Amino acid sequence: MKFMPSTLPGVVIIEPDVYEDERGWFMESFNARKFEDGLQQLGLPIPDPFVQDNQSCSRKGVLRGLHYQIEPFAQGKLVSVTQGAVFDVAVDIRVQSPTFGQWFGLELSADNKKMLWIPAGFAHGFLALEDHTKFSYKTTNFYDQTSERSVLWCDEDLAIEWPDVRDYIINEKDQHAPVLRP
């Protein structure tokens, strides 16, 4: 596995080793030892263990986010796509951070098999680029509805450059999320 820093300190791009032959391919999608070693080599802390795995399936144009949870249920997320493709976004919401309000986006797909580590302190969202996109993520804390928060996906101060798809499909809650800086 290759671990590469993104433009946001703490957010890491992970490229797994993929072994292909005439039968197809094989890859290790998660290995705790390699995950911890990869983060340590980048000078990053080891997160709490993963406690929950989640999956979603989305139509092209579905935009989910930007979501996060506050303490004591803040979550780190290891995200990947098993079918289709997304434009995945992390936004630094750590008020004291020098990169507060900055975002990083990357295409994750079943073809490129890239993953993204997003530590606690970041809002997260994605836009499905294909029908039947299956998105998977591991979290370092349990879902807690009372701790759930959102940032408006189209916050002008963030100026996220979402890919242009014909129509975005966004649920009511995400359409009315607050901006990061009121």
TrEMBL record:
Main EC class the enzyme belongs to: isomerase
Keywords: Isomerase
Catalytic activity: dTDP-4-dehydro-6-deoxy-alpha-D-glucose = dTDP-4-dehydro-beta-L-rhamnose
Entry keyword Ion transport: no
Record-stated family: Belongs to the dTDP-4-dehydrorhamnose 3,5-epimerase family.
Oligomeric form and interacting partners: Homodimer.
Protein name: dTDP-4-dehydrorhamnose 3,5-epimerase
